[in-house]
Amino acid sequence: MASKIVNFTLNGRPVEAMSKPLTTLQAILREQFKYTATKSGCKQGGCGSCTVLVNDEPIMSCLLPVENVEGQEVVTLEGLLQSEDGLHPIQAAFFERFAVQCGYCSPGMIMISKALLEQNPQPSREEIVDALTGNFCRCTGYEPIIQAVEEAARRMNGG
Amino acid sequence: MVQRMLNVVGQPVLRRDGMGHVLGKTTYVDDITYPDMLHLKMVRSPIPHARIKGIDFSEAEKVPGFVCYLTHKDIPKNVYTILTLIGVGPDEEPVLAEDKVLYNGEQIAAIVAETEEAAMEAVSRVKLDLEELPAVFDVEEALKAGAPILKPWGTNYFIYDYEYGQQNMFRKVRFGDVDKAFDEADFIVEECYQTSPIEHVPSETTACIAKPEADGRITVHTNTQALFFSLDNTALILQVPFQKLHFVGGTVGGGFGGKVDVIVEPIATLAAIKTGRPVKYKFTREEEMRVSSSRGAWRMYFKDGVMKDGRIIARKVTTYADSGAYNRHTPYAVTKHVANAAGPYRIPNVWIDAHCVYTNRQPGSAMRGFGVTPASFAIESQMDLIAETIGMDPWEIRFINAYRDGDMKPHQKVVEDATLIEVMQTAAEMVGHKLPEEYRKMSSSNREGGNHG
Description:
Chain A has 159 residues and is an alpha+beta fold. Chain A folds into two domains: 4-77, Roll (Ubiquitin-like (UB roll)); 89-156, DNA polymerase, domain 1, CATH 1.10.150.120. Chain A contains five helices and five strands; from the N terminus they run ββαβββαααα. Chain A has helices at 25-32, 89-96, 106-119, 125-131, 142-156, and strands spanning 4-10, 13-19, 51-54, 57-60, 73-75. In chain A, α2 packs across α5. The longest helix of chain A is centred in the C-terminal third of the chain and has 15 residues, at 142-156. Chain A is globular. The model of chain A has no long low-confidence stretch (mean pLDDT 95). Chain B has 453 residues and is α+β, with helices and mostly antiparallel strands. Chain B has two domains: 29-130 and 200-285, Aldehyde Oxidoreductase, domain 3 (Alpha-Beta Complex), CATH 3.90.1170; 162-198 and 293-416, Aldehyde oxidase/xanthine dehydrogenase, molybdopterin binding domain (Aldehyde Oxidoreductase, domain 4). Chain B is built from 14 helices and 17 strands. In chain B, β10 (218-222), α7 and β11 (245-248) form a beta-alpha-beta unit. Chain B is globular. Chain B starts with a helix and ends in a 13-residue tail after the last helix. The relative contact order of chain B is 0.14. Classes of the chains: A alpha+beta (159), B alpha+beta (453). The interface between A and B is medium-sized, with 37 and 31 residues.
């Protein structure tokens, strides 16, 4: 089957991707656009390290054919809107609260947290845990990650 | 007061690499690409024990994008050298299988292609002619007469002390007289403990890229936990001078011991030399689960002689470590195991035999405290069982037997800087457990107070 052109918005910029059928959004982001913050931990929807936002909804980009984002808005970690100090409050909270160790799950964790806090600005601990369920951290730093999301929520609410 | 004087100890220090992680700017191996980069995928054994009678690459070669294949014949010195490098030796694992395979998933031949997809397609078209052999999956079965023999030297166990001219089929410790002590003991407490293989599941799978440079050197980007093991191994396997290789590492997307064995770098480097192009060899998640080293499985038989007052006066341990098909780090783990099988306790009579056994399973190797972790699981389970058997509080049994500075350990090392008593005192305080006065007064640095002899 022939390749086709897919048009979408990537981190606020209109882009054009040339893709073979069933090429994933993950592959296009990493290989064509070189946005490598989106990780590739399993390529089977098992780890969440490739989580990006499509129209503000979190999605594992390794399972999504890029054709499905035609005309949509895609945001990766590189496209997080930052404050004056160069960090989004979620990034700052992850950094300062030691919610990163090897760093491989961090992009997915930050993006899923972004989606959560956009939809639910004051989540309970249980709601945070529930949101992070599909994202694996193998350095087992879940506790600081949960605390970082709580801290980010406080900062984003002006606390 | 002391804390206020310290700038680092007790103070949070932000991670140096943390900013890169939260910005997504940390570069992992898989994030690196080159325009002319090739991909390497492995032809693996689909069965656990077989003789290789033939390999047919003719259909694979027809796949568009196929570049070349590599077999053991292409490798200058076809043996991993991990144990030699840590002074344990001898090594026995081929980089690519020669006449036999010993586990399901063992590397037989490498395929190099223009894209990852083409490499996978070509791998699927390689025809293996394998004669299946009887396999053994249990450590004790592997040591029985009549078990299929896996190693060319005719045994299914690692031979220790080969360099001293005396050969032992196990690591052993002999300290005091256990049989006499068992006769004197008020109680005998016996149990078998077993642990399963555990996969580390690092978030980032094992990977490297080998890139030939214009000056004739090869740059190897790798996520190994042991950069110089990898460099040394690769140089020895490829028989090239060490300075010809430039290894770049340090960014590891989770390791936990699973990225200590050197598996991907030598063959990717060889492929880069052969093709003159950068070559990436990255495990799929399936490969990471199926063929990367796991924490080895252990079976441990414990027999303790205990007095009514709680003192353990004798311990006899027979351990079987499942190394899987090859050594990797297991012979070293067994040595660590015997040094720790008495635990942090003073036991005057100890007898240990620890066997490093080969089976037709995925090789076991390093993982967080390997060798010691299974021992600790067995020892502390055994302490609880002893407490239950003699009707004593589990805290008490540990205080009574805790070793202190100056005690002799069974492997003939004098205890220094013991902290078990202080750790237990602090732990009791933290969980709100009220300890009797005599245990609160105990100290690791002397035997005054609560001395049970």
